[in-house]
User: Which sequence fits this backbone?
């Protein structure tokens, strides 16, 4: 007997389970199988094979889901690394690489155990609900649990079926639910007879006045091949009977043909040749060329290039060139982008260089599109895959290059669910296992990445000049507006005098403006100026945000909301004031001051529909608006050539945030926003409004001085032993009861410290436990602790944290 170690699809299951392989099944590593798990049948992926069982009693694998292994050895290896490094359940890691729609749950079905008739002894002995269930079950060959749940309620359905099972009146089987996505097929019609037969048939049909049939034959003769029936109907009226008739005479045939749901079908691309590189691009390219063209020399250490180039310095051109060379060498590439919203911009540029050879993968696609795109990629039909972090797991054969654009972006870390992986780090791992090259690109590299480049772990490649239609151009001039001075001068508006003047000028010149605000909603919170009361979410304890459109206070964590009241619930005073500002406030103020300006607002509240991002960006790029007001999203690599003015409404948001990374994040945001201005024919201007103009972050951003910022920041990290000088692990425990939550958090922290005492080889300290920044979320309390040390996560492999704990290795933030 042989045995398989299987990762099972059961939430939170951290182990590999051993199953016996029945001789009739041919099971390999990477194969998807059905296995019994508890009382259920679940999906699993075979991770290892052995001749010996790992435990005394093993169950047998119930069946095979796919004949061929679902995952390649490289994918298996990457998944293993993710699950070990990030302490994630093995199936969670594997599921990143499974085809869309793969995951299916088992469904319970019931059947009568023996023939059963109404009015019989048994029937009369039953309670009315039992009888009700039996009558349903009796009517069909099999009845699913969900059907019964609808008929008599979820709890009752389980209870009654259990009773009937106990009395052996029904039996139960478990089957996987039907697949949710399937290949799409369309009926295609074509001629199957030869020319002579057709002509003879046409003459016969004309004679017997079957004009419709004759017409259809005539139409099909003019086609070059099979044509979708739907398409054919656009050209002529033709009933199913007409087609049937011709089919029965073996003149035409109708067959279902698999079609691709193409997510790019709504876009059109004009192929464009690459520009000749500028001298700095040429120099940058030469340092990368050998690895990309001739392949990786030392597979144990893949070349990772950190392409550090100011905004608009032509990094994307380098990516395109590297891809072209990769494809030329018979390989393919993946390009990761930080936001789904940027897909269109990137796809347009890449697809015009690689017409018909670009695929996209992201959660914004319909399930059918995801399914088709995934298989399209797996079958080797494209050279380039573009998408957010999950696109890294595209089943692209012959992987030769991975590009991580805007590599400093925090969206590359999956934070909200397991596995909590960082796509940049997984990309490097994947490259190492598949012999591919990695290019990390940014104008404001992650502090950790730049440190690695300084240490020689990554190869630093620089692009120092910005390219515009004016040739090499300096970065836009930045003015820092001191908001304290504005207040002193009696200006209480959201906009400083320099910003107002600049906006007026830009609008007069017909130029475009972007205004950046690190927030959404109209106000951060509403406070009573008399007693200090602040409206908070009763479930999450965070301050509620005022939304002027709905006139409601909304919790941004759980969507709890209440209407705005005119009086304070605590002191009944009428001095409620909204503090802080949001994009709606900015919009109101812009329209108030510049009534003729056309304003677009871009934040998550506006952009909820599919393609809404694309439409909004397109209408701004097509100059249908003068001012674009936005939050973080407008700081992410947008190329808007007509923008000449970028205004930062309040640079201080985030500066005082209690997180060691808040400085880095603020600097990156400021630089990225500043980088949006002046990318076109005209020079750009940036105005940063702040209450702390002397802050080194604001100063460095105003000088576009990444290196100056880096040196200060890395000193601070070294002094306080923060990453990259240590590893951080965040542990969060959540529970509905506040006391239990705190107790468990304290218990585990004590346990960790005891473990540390046992073996002094692990050097780390424990920060906390403390209540999490938002103590409550979705009705549960949350406490957290951090481990900090050179190899802090290692201690966790010796502990088995109970349910309710989440582990986040290398968290992107502390709050
Ligand atoms: P980045 O990715 O660094 O922001 P891009 O690659 O988008 O920079 O380049 C900025 C602008 O310069 C784009 O409009 C691009 O078309 C243009 N550009 C880049 N390289 C060249 C080149 N070699 N010749 C002409 N224009 C170029
Ligand atoms: Zn809430």
Assistant:
């Amino acid at each position: 007997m042989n045995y398989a170690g299987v990762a099972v699809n059961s939430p939170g299951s951290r182990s590999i389970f051993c199953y016996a392989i029945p001789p009739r099944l041919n099971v390999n590593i990477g194969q998807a199988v059905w296995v019994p798990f508890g009382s259920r049948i679940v999906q699993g992926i075979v991770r290892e094979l052995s001749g010996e069982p790992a435990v005394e009693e093993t169950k047998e694998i119930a069946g095979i889901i796919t004949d061929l292994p679902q995952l390649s050895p490289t994918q298996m290896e990457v998944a293993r690394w993710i699950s070990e490094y990030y302490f994630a359940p093995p199936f969670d890691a594997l599921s990143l690489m499974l085809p869309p729609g793969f995951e299916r749950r088992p469904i319970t079905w019931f059947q009568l155990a023996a023939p059963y008739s109404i009015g019989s002894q048994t029937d009369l002995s039953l309670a009315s609900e039992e009888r009700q269930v039996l009558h349903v079950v009796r009517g069909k060959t099999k009845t699913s649990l969900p059907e019964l749940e609808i008929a008599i309620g979820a709890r009752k359905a389980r209870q009654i079926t259990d009773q009937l099972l106990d009395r052996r009146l029904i039996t139960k089987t478990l089957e996987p639910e039907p697949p949710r996505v399937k290949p799409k097929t369309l009926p295609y019609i074509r001629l199957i007879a030869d020319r002579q037969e057709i002509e003879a048939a046409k003459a016969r049909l004309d004679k017997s006045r079957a004009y419709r049939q004759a017409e259809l034959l005539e139409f099909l003769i003019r086609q070059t091949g099979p044509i979708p029936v739907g398409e054919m109907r656009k050209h002529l009226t033709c009933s199913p009977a007409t087609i049937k008739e011709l089919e029965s005479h073996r003149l035409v045939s109708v067959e279902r043909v698999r079609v691709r749901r193409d997510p790019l079908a709504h876009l059109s691309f004009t192929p464009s040749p690459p520009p000749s590189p500028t001298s700095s691009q040429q120099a940058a390219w030469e340092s990368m060329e050998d690895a990309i063209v001739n392949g990786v020399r030392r597979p144990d250490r893949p070349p990772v290039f950190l392409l550090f180039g100011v905004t608009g310095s032509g990094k994307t051109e380098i990516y395109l060139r590297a891809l072209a060379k990769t494809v030329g060498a018979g390989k393919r590439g993946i390009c990761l982008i930080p936001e789904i919203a940027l897909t269109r911009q990137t796809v347009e540029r890449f697809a015009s260089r690689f017409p018909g050879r670009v695929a996209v993968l992201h959660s914004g696609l319909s399930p059918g599109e995801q399914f088709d795109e995934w298989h399209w990629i797996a079958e080797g039909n494209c050279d380039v895959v573009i998408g957010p972090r999950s696109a890294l797991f595209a089943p692209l054969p012959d992987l030769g290059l991975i590009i991580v654009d805007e590599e400093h972006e925090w969206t590359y870390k999956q934070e909200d669910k397991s596995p909590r992986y960082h796509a940049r780090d997984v990309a490097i791992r994947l490259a190492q296992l598949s012999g591919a090259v990695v290019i990390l690109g940014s104008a404001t590299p992650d502090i950790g990445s730049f440190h690695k480049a300084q240490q020689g772990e990554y190869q630093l490649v620089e692009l120092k000049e910005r390219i515009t239609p004016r040739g090499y151009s300096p970065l836009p001039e930045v003015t820092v507006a001191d908001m304290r001075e504005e207040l002193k001068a009696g200006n209480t508006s959201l906009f400083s005098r320099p910003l107002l003047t600049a906006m007026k000028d830009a609008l007069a010149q017909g130029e475009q403006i972007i205004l950046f605000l690190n927030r959404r909603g109209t106000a951060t919170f509403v406070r009573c100026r008399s007693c200090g009361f602040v409206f908070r979410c009763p479930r999450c304890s965070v301050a509620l945000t005022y939304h002027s459109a709905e006139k409601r206070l909304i919790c941004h964590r759980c969507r709890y909301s209440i209407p705005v009241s005119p009086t304070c619930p605590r002191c009944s005073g009428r001095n409620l004031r909204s503090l802080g500002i949001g994009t709606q406030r900015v919009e109101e103020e812009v329209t108030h001051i510049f009534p003729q300006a056309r304003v677009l607002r871009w934040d998550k509240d506006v952009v909820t529909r599919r393609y809404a991002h694309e439409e909004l960006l397109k209408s701004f790029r097509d100059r249908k608006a003068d001012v674009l007001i936005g939050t973080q999203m407008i700081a992410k690599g947008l190329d808007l050539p007509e923008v000449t003015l970028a205004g930062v409404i309040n640079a201080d948001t985030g500066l005082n945030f209690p997180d060691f990374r808040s400085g880095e994040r603020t600097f990156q945001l400021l630089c990225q926003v500043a980088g949006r201005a002046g990318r076109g024919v005209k020079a750009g201007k940036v105005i940063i409004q702040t209450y702390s103009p002397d802050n080194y972050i604001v100063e460095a951003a105003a000088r576009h001085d990444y290196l100056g910022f880096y040196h200060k920041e890395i000193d601070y990290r070294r002094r306080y032993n923060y990453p990259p000088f240590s590893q951080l692990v965040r542990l969060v425990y959540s529970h509905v009861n506040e006391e239990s939550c705190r107790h468990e958090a304290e218990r585990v922290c004590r346990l960790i410290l005891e473990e540390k005492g046992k073996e002094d080889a692990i050097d780390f300290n424990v920060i906390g436990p403390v209540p999490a920044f938002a103590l409550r979320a979705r009705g549960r309390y949350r406490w957290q602790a951090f481990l900090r040390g050179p190899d802090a996560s290692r201690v966790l492999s010796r502990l088995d944290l109970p349910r309710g704990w989440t582990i986040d290795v290398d968290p992107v933030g502390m709050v």
